[in-house]
Specification:
Layout (H helix, E strand, L loop, with lengths): L2 H10 L1 E5 L13 H14 L5 E4 L12 H15 L14 H13 L4 E5 L8 H14 L3 E6 L1 H4 L5 H10 L3 E6 L4 H11 L5 E3 L3 H7 L6 E4 L6 H12 L3 H11 L3
Parallel strand pairs: 1-2, 1-7, 3-4, 4-5, 5-6
Helix pairs in contact: 2-3, 4-5, 5-7, 7-8, 10-11
Length: 255
Amino acid sequence: MKLDQLKEYYWKGTLTVVQLTPFKYGSEELDLEGLRINTEFLVEASKKGPLVLTPAGSTGEFYALNDEEYKKVLKTVVDVAGGKVPVVPGASHAGTKAAIERAKYAQDIGADGVQIVLPYYHVPTEEGLYLHYSKLCQSIDIGVVIYNNSDISKIYMKPHILRRLVEEFDNIVAVKENTPNVAMLYDQIRKCGDKVPILQGRGDLWFGLTAHLGVRGYVSYCANFMPDICLELLRAGLNKNYDKLFEIMKKIEVY
């Protein structure tokens, strides 16, 4: 998918599936066949609504994969998806150089974009945060999804930094916004939502509770096994059908 097509895809409203990384029972060996089956299942589900696949994200335990495993996971999903559904893998790393290397690998094998969390472990200044993403954006031609997760990174990308980045770099296609502070989420949408799609990053129920604020989709782990229900929730939220939205949320609560 070309960059402008990916941006438009996010603007219309998307469900991002953070894929699990399966391992063989009783060992730490990757279950690539299981990953293929899961990806095929999700590609089939994408016929019913707009899905984005994100392997090697936080739910996919990117931090626990060595470089060889990481590359195998990405290559498997990109190959199985075959251009039928956008693949935007995690390419996160605390160091800018290492994150760029992962992002370039994703680009080289045909991924449509990369999702990159804020630097973690060490806490950069706001200028350091800007430089981290500016160097990443300059290094690749595919889309970049900023993963604004203060829980993990101990820093938060405030609207003035996000605005500066999206006005300067055309390949920032979306923001996975993970703040648990609804006022901060609304402030991000109010100040930057005209320039970049803001996604609810905290999952299905959080999307249901904040859909009215103007988020353009959400990120789900539940969609690994129940994408149809998650797509129903997405449609209800984007269409502001709140009766239907809360009906579906009741179904999801059991998970």
